[in-house]
Amino acid sequence: MSCINEYYSAFRSPFNDILGLVGNSQHYSRCRELELNVLDCTDVYGRKGLLKQCAVEYSDFMECLFNTKQKARVAAMQQERLRQYYAGERTKKNFYAEAPKLDSYHQTYTQTIG
């Protein structure tokens, strides 16, 4: 398989094989399949095609690793909540949504199996 890292060494040695285990995301179960999709795509197009032909797979993999879009979405929701608070649409009491009742998950779970 090809390597995603742009600092890939052209020289093979036992040290590269050992340290190559550190540079992948197979230990992170959430991103495992996405990394394999990127590696399959780079097998077809090569490392030069990583940012052109494999851009969709690569961006999905990077989002899985770093959660940049998810963090931006959370920040936008927090800013909107603050805007509503300063505009008087929210009060301190309803600044956040009401938390679920204690053990509410357990009660609904036992009702479905009972």
From TrEMBL:
The cellular location(s) given in this protein's UniProt record come to: Mitochondrion inner membrane; Mitochondrion intermembrane space
Coiled-coil features, chain-numbered ranges: none
Task: Say yes or no: keyword Oxidoreductase present.
Answer: no
* Cystines in this chain: C31-C64, C41-C54
Q: Name one Pfam family in it.
A: Ndufs5
Instruction: Identify the GO cellular component terms for this protein.
Output: mitochondrial inner membrane; mitochondrial intermembrane space
Q: How does it sit in the membrane?
A: Peripheral membrane protein
- The protein's superkingdom reads Eukaryota
Q: Check the record and name the InterPro entries matching this protein.
A: NADH_UbQ_OxRdtase_FeS-su5
The UniProt keywords, alphabetically, are: Disulfide bond, Electron transport, Membrane, Mitochondrion, Mitochondrion inner membrane, Respiratory chain, Transport
Q: Which family does it belong to?
A: Belongs to the complex I NDUFS5 subunit family.
Could you tell me what this protein does?
Accessory subunit of the mitochondrial membrane respiratory chain NADH dehydrogenase (Complex I), that is believed not to be involved in catalysis. Complex I functions in the transfer of electrons from NADH to the respiratory chain. The immediate electron acceptor for the enzyme is believed to be ubiquinone.
Mind telling me what this protein is named? NADH dehydrogenase [ubiquinone] iron-sulfur protein 5
Specify the species.
Nephila pilipes (Giant wood spider)
* Gene (name only): AVEN_183176_1
